[in-house]
């Protein structure tokens, strides 16, 4: 197993993708083929049942509408004045004129409703009149079961299917199986007494046409049972008479599967609340299985075709995915050999295209970093060289000044001694034995020495003040960061103003850095020039020759040593003064041992 996994891990991505795609497709197709067919079988059976029940409901609705219409016709007949007059006759026969008028009324209804085969009116005294119907024997019609049933339920219209054994016939030749009879009692609205009965025979042609327009599957059919279990209507089919009533459970609606003559049949039924009839649909199960068998065959064909197409498409699409990756691998090999001018060209914006763009961006950043490191190292070497040159020159001056100070002491020239002492300190601290870092105490002393020298020249023009907390004296800073900025404040700020000026030098801790501020109340800097200087200090713009190097040299030394988060920022208002802010990290002095 481990060897197989190792073999699999060593295969190419294209091979793995093809295998994974085909496996996913195969699993999906097999799942759809086996489970899908089973699910569809159950679903199609349920759908067929629902569809059959809907058709049964539709047939039931059409039949109910048809019967209700004829009930209305029967009701209108019973309300006719001539019919009411006939029904109220007791022991007397109607005249010929009355019979003619009644016959005219009945003829009008039969002509408008072609399904009516005949209409008979029978009053309670036994007299009758009809249209196309007559009494077979002389026995009284009031003794007929249909007449007696109508008297017992005067508010209902009875529907009699297959009216066999009546003492009534018609001039038309038809079988009792082709007839449906409606019986309705006529009631006196004043006394609510039953006056007689209206008997109406109907052709089954309309009901047959309704059923003939309904198709259940390929060989299914529908039929109707009355409330007694007798067949009201059934197509010519020997299966109908083999369906036993006991198979159909009680309830308004239901379904079951029953075997008849060696075949399974699906039987669905629904009871009509209007006529108390049961509408039954019968569908052979073979109709279901035939559809499922066809689906299985089609599924196998589609599965085979899909697998073939999936294999071809998988090979094509994996190729389109792997080609740019291989191209990217080739470019990386060239880059590995030092060829940083390579670039990935992609026509897409997908993940591989984005990866290629990132690869190109990475190479550009590497080139930029190489150039930046080269430029920074060059600047750092230049700055170090300038500092070294500035250190070498004071060696001779420092020794010479020491001699001049000794000679001034011989002549007791105190002013000269103070200035020379300050200048000596200035050079001594500037040299600092070649060290780049000095304590804040020495940096402040260096700046004070510079101010003593300047005061001898600008005594009436300049005041200065140092406000450096003593707890900052022990921290280390880059040397010679205050003096160039104080010099700028004197020559560009104080000298350019009218009257005496003042320079203040202060420092404080801010989070993890020391912030020095050199503030003068000189002429200030115009806003455009101030913005340009700050842009140069932030590295956003190149320095031009019109600007000196002192301010920018200090800024570059700090940023080259500690990063661009530190350095110089200038704030100024024209005519009010300027503040130069130095941000320098807090650096503790390192004790030397040994």
Automatic annotation (TrEMBL):
Enzyme class at the top of the EC tree: transferase
SMART domains in the cross-refs: HAMP (SM00304), HATPase_c (SM00387)
Keywords assigned by UniProt, alphabetized: ATP-binding, Cell membrane, Kinase, Membrane, Nucleotide-binding, Phosphoprotein, Transferase, Transmembrane, Transmembrane helix, Two-component regulatory system
Chief place where the protein resides: membrane
Any one Pfam family match given in the protein's UniProt record, by short name: HAMP
InterPro entries given in the database record: Bact_2-comp_sensor_kinase (IPR050640), dCache_1 (IPR033479), HAMP_dom (IPR003660), HATPase_C_sf (IPR036890), HATPase_dom (IPR003594), His_kinase_dom (IPR005467), Sig_transdc_His_kin_internal (IPR010559)
Catalytic activity: ATP + protein L-histidine = ADP + protein N-phospho-L-histidine
Record PROSITE patterns: HAMP, HIS_KIN
Transmembrane segments: 20-37, 297-322
Highest taxon above the source species: Bacteria
HAMP domain residues: 319-371
Localisation: Cell membrane
Bilayer topology term: Multi-pass membrane protein
Domain Histidine kinase stretches: 478-588
EC number: 2.7.13.3
Database matches in CDD domains: HAMP
Listed name of the protein: histidine kinase
């Amino acid at each position: 197993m481990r060897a197989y996994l190792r073999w699999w891990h060593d295969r190419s991505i294209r091979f793995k993708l093809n295998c994974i795609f085909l496996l996913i497709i195969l699993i999906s197709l097999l799942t759809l083929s086996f489970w899908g067919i089973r699910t569809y079988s159950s679903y199609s059976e349920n759908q067929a049942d629902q569809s059959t029940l809907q058709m049964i409901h539709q047939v039931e609705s059409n039949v109910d509408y048809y019967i209700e219409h004829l009930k209305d016709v029967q009701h209108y007949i019973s309300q006719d004045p001539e019919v009411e007059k006939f029904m109220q006759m007791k022991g007397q026969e109607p005249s010929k004129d009355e019979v003619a008028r009644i016959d005219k009324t009945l003829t009008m209804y039969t002509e408008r409703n072609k399904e009516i085969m005949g209409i008979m009116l029978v009053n309670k005294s036994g007299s009758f009149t009809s249209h196309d119907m007559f009494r077979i024997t002389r026995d009284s019609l009031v003794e007929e079961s249909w007449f007696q049933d109508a008297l017992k339920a005067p508010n209902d219209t009875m529907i009699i299917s297959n009216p066999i054994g009546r003492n009534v016939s018609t001039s038309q030749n038809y079988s009792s199986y082709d007839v449906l009879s409606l019986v309705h009692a006529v009631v006196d609205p004043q006394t609510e007494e039953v006056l007689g009965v209206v008997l109406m025979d109907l052709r089954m042609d309309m009901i047959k046409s309704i059923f003939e327009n309904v198709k259940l599957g390929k060989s299914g059919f529908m039929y109707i049972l009355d409330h007694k279990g007798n067949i009201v209507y059934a197509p010519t089919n020997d299966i109908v008479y083999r369906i036993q009533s006991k198979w159909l459970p009680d309830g308004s609606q239901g379904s079951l599967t029953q075997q008849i003559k060696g075949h399974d049949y699906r039987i669905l039924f629904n009871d009509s609340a209007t006529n108390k009839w049961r509408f039954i649909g019968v569908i052979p199960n073979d109709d279901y299985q035939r559809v499922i068998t066809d689906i299985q065959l089609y599924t196998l064909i589609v599965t085979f075709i899909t697998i073939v197409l999936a294999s071809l498409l998988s090979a094509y699409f994996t190729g389109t995915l792997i080609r740019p990756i291989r191209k990217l691998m080739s470019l990386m090999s060239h880059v590995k050999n030092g060829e940083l001018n390579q670039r990935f060209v992609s026509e897409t914006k997908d993940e591989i295209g984005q990866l290629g763009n990132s690869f190109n961006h990475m190479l550009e950043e590497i080139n930029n970093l190489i150039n930046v490191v080269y430029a920074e190292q060059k600047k750092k070497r230049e700055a170090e060289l300038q500092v070294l040159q500035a250190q070498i020159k004071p060696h001779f001056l420092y020794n010479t000044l020491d001699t001049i100070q000794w000679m001034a002491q011989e002549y007791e020239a105190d002013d000269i001694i103070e200035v020379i002492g300050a200048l000596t300190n200035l050079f001594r601290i500037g040299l600092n034995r070649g060290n780049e870092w000095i304590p804040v105490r020495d940096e402040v002393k260096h700046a004070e020495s510079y101010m003593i020298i300047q005061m001898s020249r600008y005594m009436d023009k300049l005041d200065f003040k140092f406000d450096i907390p003593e707890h900052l004296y022990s921290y280390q800073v880059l040397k010679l960061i205050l003096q160039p900025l104080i010099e700028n404040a004197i020559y560009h700020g104080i000298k350019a103003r009218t009257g005496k000026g003042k320079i203040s030098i202060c420092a404080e801790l801010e989070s993890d850095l020391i912030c020095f501020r050199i503030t003068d109340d000189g002429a200030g800097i115009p806003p455009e020039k101030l913005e340009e200087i700050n842009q140069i200090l932030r590295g956003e713009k190149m320095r031009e020759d019109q600007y000196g190097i002192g301010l920018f040299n200090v800024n570059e030394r700090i940023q080259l040593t500690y990063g661009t988060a530190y350095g110089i920022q200038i704030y100024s208002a024209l005519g009010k003064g300027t503040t130069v802010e130095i941000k320098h990290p807090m650096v503790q002095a390192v004790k030397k041992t040994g």
